[in-house]
Amino acid sequence: MIFFCNTKITEEIPRRGPQPYDRGLLKSSNKLDVFKYSIASLSKIYQWKRVIIYYELDNLYKPRQKELEDFIRDEFKGHDLVLRNRRNSLQKDWEDMYELLNDELIWFYCNHDHIFMDSEYSYFRQVVEDMRLYNDELCSLGFSHWPETIRNASKLKDFKLEDSHFSGESLCYDSIQVINKKLYHAWWCTKRFPHPLPRPDWFENGLEYWGLAISHKMLGPYREFCRHFDGYGHILLYVGGAILNDACPAIGIPNGFFENDIKIRYGYEDNKSGWVNINPKKKLWTALSETGADYRFTLSDIPAFWEKRISEWDLAQNIDEMDMLNGKLEAVLGMIYTSQAYPIPIDLYNKIVNAQLLKHPEFIIDE
User: Contact 300/359 with Cβ under 8 angstroms?
Assistant: First the structure.
C-alpha cells in the first residue's frame, strides 16, 4: 500500500465549510504540531511500498519547513519517500501522480489532523488485506470518522457484514479513505474539471460538483482506527448531525510527546497536571470537565505509537479490571449511539463489541 498525503498547513479559517471546531476545555495546538503528531501515528501502521507527501506551509510555518521535513524523513526512515513542498491542485497534478502509484491500494489523506488511535496494527492490516480481494472493483475503506461511519452503516445499499469489516455501496468521496487504484483513476483521470481541486471533498466544488462522485464498494471497520483531532461537532445534519464532546470528544497531544516523556496516570478519580489521565470508569472527558478523563480506555488500549514515548507510569491501587473493561465498552458504545434516527442492528453491535474484546477473548460474544 502507498501512503499518500496532500495537504496545506495553515491557521486560516476557510470561508466555506466547517468553522472553528468546538474543543471544549481542551487547549488548541498549532497545526504543524498536529500534522507531526498525525504523521507519527501513521508512519508505522503498515509497511508502506511508497510514501508520497505533498504539502504546503503558510507564511507562519515556513520557518519550520526543515524541522517538518527532518521529522517526516525520520518517521519514514527506510521507505521510498517522495517529498514535495507543493500539493496537487490541478487535474494534471493528479494525472501525473498516477504514474507514481506502484501498488493497488492508497492511503489517501488530504488532511493533517487524523490520528491513528488503535493499540495495535494487526486488525487494520487484516482489513487492508481483505480489501485487496475487491481490487477488480472500485473500492474504498473509511479510516476515520468511525462513530459517524458506524451510525450510518446499515443505511448503505447492499449492506453486508464480513468477518473483519462491513461493506455497502457508497458515493463517498471523503479525503480520508484507503482507496484502490481503480477508484483513484475514476476520480481524477476520466472526466475533465477546469477548477483546481486540492482534495476530492473541496467544499461545493468537489468531485460531486463535477459529476465524479462515483458509486463504489465502501468498507468500514468494527473498531476505530483514526480520530479527528478536533472531534465531530461539525458533522452535518444529513449524516446524523453533530457528535459532541460528551460522546466522542476532541483529543490533544500528550504532554511530553515530542520529548519522549509522556507520563501515564491510570485509574485515579482525580487528575494530575502534566500527565495523561486515563480512567474508563469516569463518565466525562476533560473536554467537558476538569475532573473528567483524558481517555476512557484500558491499559491494553494505549495507542501503539505512544508506547516508545512513555517515560513514567502511575497506576492506582486495587483496580478492578472488569470495571475498567465495562467502562471502556460503555465509552465506545456511547460514541455510536448518538441518534435515534440511526439504529444499529444487533449483529453489527455484536461485531463492534467483539472487536473491542480481541485482547480479552474470554468475553467474546457468540455471534
Answer: yes
Distance CA 124, CA 87 (A): 27
**What pLDDT digit, counting tens, does each position of 8-66 carry?**
999 887 655 556 789 999 999 999 999 999 999 999 999 999 999 999 999 999 999 99
Domain of residue 272 covers 262-323
In the chain, which ranges are continuous DSSP H helix? Answer: 31-42, 65-75, 91-98, 122-131, 146-152, 181-188, 321-336, 346-356
94: CATH: 3.90.550
Nearest to 312 by CA among 263, 253, 258: 263
Measured from the Cβ of residue 184, the count of other Cβ atoms closer than 10 Å reads: 23
352, 222 Cβ separation under 8 angstroms: yes
pLDDT of 216 over the 80 cut: yes
The radius of gyration of the chain from alpha carbons, rounded to an integer in Å, stands at 20
Q: Under the phi-then-psi rule, with left for phi > 0, alpha for psi from -120 to 50, and beta for the rest, what region is 28?
A: beta
Using DSSP, how many helices (H) and how many strands (E) does the chain show? 8, 14
Q: Are 254 and 276 in contact (CB under 8 A)?
A: yes
Local structure of 251: helix, strand or coil: coil
Domain identity same for 107 and 36: yes
CA dist., res. 53 & res. 76, Å (int): 11
User: Which string of DSSP letters, residue by residue, matches 240-298?
Assistant: T--B-TTTS----PPTTTTTT-EEEEES-SS--TTSEEE-TT-SSBTTT-TTSBSB---
Q: Domain check: are 42 and 115 in the same one?
A: yes
Q: How many domains does the chain have?
A: 2
CA angle 293/297/302 to nearest 5° reads 110
- DSSP designation for 137: S
